[in-house]
User: Fold this.
Amino acid sequence: MKASLIELHRTADERLQRDGQRYTANRRALIDALGGSDRPLSMPELLERSEGMAQSSAYRNLAILEEAGVVHRLVTSDDTARYELAEDLTGHHHHVICESCGSVLDIDAPPELEHGVHAFAESVAATHGFAVSHHRLDLVGTCAACAAART
Amino acid sequence: MKASLIELHRTADERLQRDGQRYTANRRALIDALGGSDRPLSMPELLERSEGMAQSSAYRNLAILEEAGVVHRLVTSDDTARYELAEDLTGHHHHVICESCGSVLDIDAPPELEHGVHAFAESVAATHGFAVSHHRLDLVGTCAACAAART
DNA sequence: ATGAGTGCAAAGGCTTTGCATTAGG
DNA sequence: CCTAATGCAAAGCCTTTGCACTCAT
Assistant:
């Protein structure tokens, strides 16, 4: 499901134009950074990968990219946000979150499990009049690195 | 699984003592607030329910209560934290999160689904050397109130 | 008395906003 | 040209910390 970078840029451009936004060099750099990662990136990580971009521009552009449905902002356990490409661009996946260092890893769940979650979501929607737009299934614990460091 | 308030206070007291902490009036008030709610509470909500408590005391005591394993802090979508009783005091449950107003509702998942999640967690633990301590399964969308307001 | 707990106010850290400058169409 | 986008610095907001005071043991 992972789209090529070229295709990714095309899609981003389309969605921004639909919102009356331009696909500038800064926005391109952010998409490159996110498209080249197999996990969500924090602001420091994004700035490292985006030579010379002002932090305020990064925040502003990420907000615009999220608005356009290209990027997704997520908050896990620590209070720093992380960003990833929208799910329809990366394929549905879940997160393994280290509560010690805050790092996040992408991971896929077996189809049976996804089915179960969808059924659950539908029953909740029906029961509570709640419009479920998506679900999150995170595994939280300690990553190998942190477990080792804690020795 | 929901313990009586009396039992809850006893447990909180025990766990705090184990940490060399006292079970003060402020801490009691926080536990009362959380124990009397069927959903996680934000700081403003907690202060409303805790007559005259200083915000700094609330933050400090919640941190101590979390350390003692009585309270759990969670961050959902907006950047305000919410607090609930530790899972072993409330029973395992999941959250329905409104991305419009940030409200959170507690909910139970069917046992089959929980089984599936556990199996998944174990396979990830084995594959990635990641120590899974717990999981989160959230349904994200728009609550009935927000859907109505948006008319 | 003695240290934990509290409230108030100040400081911190991530994120957002104001404003003058630069650049894309 | 004219508006959108950028960078810098200032402001905001939630949360944490410093400090003097109070309370319980």
